[in-house]
Structure formats: structure tokens, C-alpha cells
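Hi support team,

I've been running sequence recovery on a batch of backbones for a student project. Most finish fine, but this one hangs at about 90% for roughly twenty minutes before it completes. I'm not sure whether the input is malformed or the queue is just slow. I've pasted the C-alpha cells below so you can try to reproduce it. Let me know if you need the job ID as well.

Thanks,
M.K.
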């Protein structure tokens, strides 16, 4: 490495350590991706307002629907840091629910939905990854036994010997 490259890397390291404290990523309450450097990020926490037009041309808004949080984080990753890259790829491919901390606010159940990267001469031996996240809701289904008098059609009721019944009406 020449002197210019070393000086640039030192300046980047000092600058990145200042910004690195604004963001963190957690999995199961343990901080992960600790060797990446966060450049910047944004979180979109918004709602959709339900508007309805009236006959006289006015519009009323009667309620709001909270949209899933979306976010993006730009990170700087050393080209030689293959373990962090493998960790990001594992979270991306497995749909791992992560928690993103942006300043003091926590955003749980965020899944990496895109991980494009930029290669250029601006950061020498480092690559900028623009990770996109989206909040997911995880539901667990349950099977509840129902007696014949609790269902509309007796053939959908629970019986000991016939196993589970489908909630879909059969034709």
C-alpha cells in the first residue's frame, strides 16, 4: 500500500467510528455484524390513511393502517472480511428476523429483503452494501377442536377417529 492509501484508510476509520454508534443490528438480543461500518441509514415508519369521497366532493378520513416498517442501511465492508459477508448472506437467504437500532429507537422483526453493492475507487479495498429491510409479522396457527353444535356443518366438527378437518368448504 502506498502512503495515500494508508492515509485515506486512517481517515475513513476515524470518521466511520464516529458514525458507527448511530446504528446496530441485533439477533436474539445479541449484537451481530460488529465488524461492518455503518455509513448512513433511514427507517420509514408510516401509515396509510383511509380516505372516502362524499357526494358533495369532500373527503373524509376515518382511520389509518400502520404499514410495515421499511429501512435501508449503507455499510462499508472490507473486501477481506469474508465472515461478515457470509453472515449477511446467511441472514438474507434464511429470512432471519433482526432488530435494527437507529439512534435510540429499536425496530424488531426486520428481514433483509435486498443487498445490492457498489464497487468503486472511492473506498479503495472496501465495498459499500446497501441493505434494505422490511418488518415482518410472524403468525402461529393453532388447531382448535370444535364439537358438532359449535360448527355450521356437522361434517366439519372434530371427532376422535377422523383426524383434523379442513376449514375450507368442500364442493
Amino acid at each position: 500500500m502506498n502512503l495515500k492509501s494508508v492515509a485515506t484508510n486512517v481517515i475513513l476509520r476515524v470518521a466511520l467510528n464516529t458514525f458507527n454508534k448511530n446504528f446496530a443490528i441485533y439477533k436474539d438480543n445479541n449484537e451481530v455484524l460488529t465488524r461492518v461500518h455503518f455509513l448512513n441509514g433511514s427507517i420509514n415508519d408510516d401509515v396509510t390513511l383511509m380516505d372516502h369521497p362524499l357526494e358533495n366532493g369532500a373527503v373524509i378520513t376515518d382511520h389509518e393502517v400502520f404499514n410495515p416498517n421499511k429501512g435501508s442501511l449503507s455499510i462499508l465492508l472490507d473486501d477481506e472480511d469474508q465472515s461478515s459477508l457470509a453472515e449477511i448472506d446467511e441472514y438474507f437467504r434464511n429470512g432471519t428476523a433482526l432488530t435494527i437500532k437507529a439512534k435510540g429507537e429499536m425496530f424488531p422483526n426486520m428481514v433483509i429483503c435486498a443487498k445490492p453493492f457498489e464497487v468503486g475507487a472511492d473506498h479503495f479495498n472496501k465495498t459499500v452494501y446497501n441493505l434494505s429491510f422490511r418488518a415482518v409479522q410472524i403468525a402461529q396457527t393453532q388447531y382448535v377442536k370444535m364439537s358438532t353444535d359449535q360448527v355450521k356443518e356437522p361434517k366439519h366438527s372434530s371427532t376422535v377417529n377422523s383426524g383434523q378437518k379442513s376449514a375450507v368448504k368442500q364442493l
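--
Follow-up from support: It reproduced on our side and the slowdown came from queue contention, not your input. The chain has a mean pLDDT of 81. No action needed from you.
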